[in-house]
Each structure stands twice: as C-alpha cells, then as structure tokens.
What we know:
Layout: E1 5-10, H1 18-31, E2 35-39, H2 43-47, E3 51-54, H3 81-94, E4 98-103, H4 105-116, E5 121-125, H5 141-162, E6 165-170, H6 177-186, E7 190-192, H7 200-213, E8 219-224, H8 230-241, E9 245-249, H9 261-279, E10 285-290, E11 293-298, H10 299-303, H11 311-320
Parallel strand pairs: 1-2, 1-4, 4-5, 5-10, 6-8, 6-9, 7-8
Antiparallel strand pairs: 2-3, 10-11
The structure holds adenosine-5'-triphosphate.
Amino acid sequence: MKVKTIGVLTSGGDAPGMNAAVRAVVRTALSKGMQVKGIIRGYNGLIDDDIVDMNIRSVSDIIHRGGTMLYTARSPRFREEEGIQMAVQTCEKHGIDGIVCIGGDGTFRGARDLSLHGVPCVGVPATIDNDISSTEYTIGFDTAVNTCMEMVDRLRDTAQSHDRCTVVEVMGRGAGYLALHSGVACGATTILVPEIRLDVEKDIIDKILNSQRTGKKHFIVVVAEGVGSVDRLAQQIQSVTGIDSRATVLGHVQRGGTPSVRDRVTASKMGYEAVQLLSQGIGNRVVAEKDGKIVDYDIYDALNMEKDFDEYLHEVANAISN
Ligand code: ATP
C-alpha cells in the first residue's frame, strides 16, 4: 500500500518532549512526500473530526516547549465500538492511511484497536512516569525528574534552615521511577515507591532517628504518589520523632517546562522511526528504546511486556542515604 497521508496525535497525560516528537513526525513525513494531518485532543479529534493540515511551518518554534501543540485528552468514547467506528470514518474522510499515536500504554491500547479496524498505527512512548513496560525510556521522564530534583533542592534549603523533615510527593501512581531517581539525585533519607512495601516505624522513622544520632538535623523523604498520603506520613514522623515535619505535593509542576536535551533528542529519533514504519505500510507497532537504541515491537507484545523495577538503584539509595 502506498502511504500518502498520515495523522499524528498526542493522548493521555502530556509530557515535555511531545512537541519535539510531533515536529519530527511532521517533518519526516513531509520529507518523504507524504501529507500530514494533525489530530486535535487525542482520539477525541478523530471522533469529532477535529483535524488540521500540517506543513513544515506548522511545527516551527515548538521544539523547546512543554505541553503539546496538538492538545491532549482522555477519551472514554474511544473505548466504545461506536467511537472507534466514528474515528475510522474520519480517517476515511481525510484519507488518513496511518497514525502516529504519542502517549502511554492507554494510548497504545487505542492504537492497537484502531490498527485492528484497518488504520495502521504506530505508538511513540511519552509519559513523565517512565512506566511503559516495552521501553527503557519514555519521552518526558528526564525533564520531569530534573524538575523534581530542582524542587526538592529548594525544599532542602528551607528544611535545612529550620531543622525540619520535608516529606515530598512526586508523581507516580503505579511506578516509582520518578521518586527513585529524584530521591537519589536529591540525597533523600528515605524513598518510598509503590513497588516496594516499607514499614513506617522500622524503615522510615527508625532510619531518621538513627541518622539524627549521627548529627543529621534535616531530612528529606521522597514519596511516589501511589504510596499514600504525605500529610499523614509527615504527621506520623513528627508525632514519633518530635522533628518538625512538613508535607509538599509537587503536583502538575512536574508535567510542564522546557524539555531537556535527552527528551528532545529521543522524541526526534522516535518520531522519525515511527514515520519510517508507517511509510512502509507497517502498523500495529510501537517504537521503544532498548540498550540505548531505537527499536520497534508489535503493539500486542509490547502491552504484554513487564518492566523490572530498578532494584540496583534502590539498593544504591539504601546504602548511601543515611
Ligand atoms: P498516561 O497514563 O501516561 O497519561 P496513557 O496513554 O496511558 O498516558 P490513558 O488515559 O490511559 O493515558 O489513555 C489515553 C487514551 O487512550 C484514553 O483516553 C482512551 O481514549 C485510549 N485508551 C485507553 N485505554 C484504552 C483501551 N483499553 N482501549 C481503547 N482505547 C483506550
């Protein structure tokens, strides 16, 4: 099949570097003589026929911007057969022969469903959580982890000045990559991740008290969102140790900001590879990073892969965090 027109969409949570991926998709496709359609607000754009023509200049001046110029959405309607049928009709109407779907695992499930309905799709992994099983790296993680580091460094300044314990929640409902990496980078006393269950008394409070005995006066506890309430944990630490303890939820600040070099370069490579596949009529794939190289997998296989928690980094964190 000769691929004449491809679409590009961003879906799920936004991540810094999505724009760089969109740019790479648009420019690569145009350089191959294809036309490109921008699909607005993820799968909703396909259902609602919200489609724009993209040219070389449509993606000017976006490589350094966080967020996504195509907007993003979660689309419950797309999970229904009726929604998919409407999306397929929109593709037919605009002559869209294939779509690059930039987002997380949910976005890949949508891409698989659309591929099964005859519209070849290629997924590009973008989420600040780095929690996509098929890839070692997701676009947005590096920027987000650097934002966390900067924020926690600031909290350290004030915690140090007041001899306080600062308990910080970073994003990550089901995965602790952001917490683990930012915790190591910030010299956290304890890092709590959903993958490893810790005992509050033994693993957190006793550790703080032991560090206090060696002269430590301020403490940083980094907690992944999925572990539980940082307010409650701060209260618990304060009531047992007597150390003034404050909770901070970093929240959406972690999503925004100018993408790092790592995210811009990875997004450019992945966007380019996604178009290479679609231009050959190959769909139902996701691109991924493995051993530093860009590879691609069948979407079904990708969704069934399992990602190992970084036990080694966790061990390092435990050894040096006292
Ligand atoms: P992140 O969780 O990192 O923000 P994500 O891509 O996993 O990114 P989701 O909200 O899970 O985010 O999925 C994005 C969209 O993909 C959904 O709103 C829906 O339109 C589509 N989608 C998700 N799961 C499925 C599914 N099982 N089948 C079809 N489409 C799905």
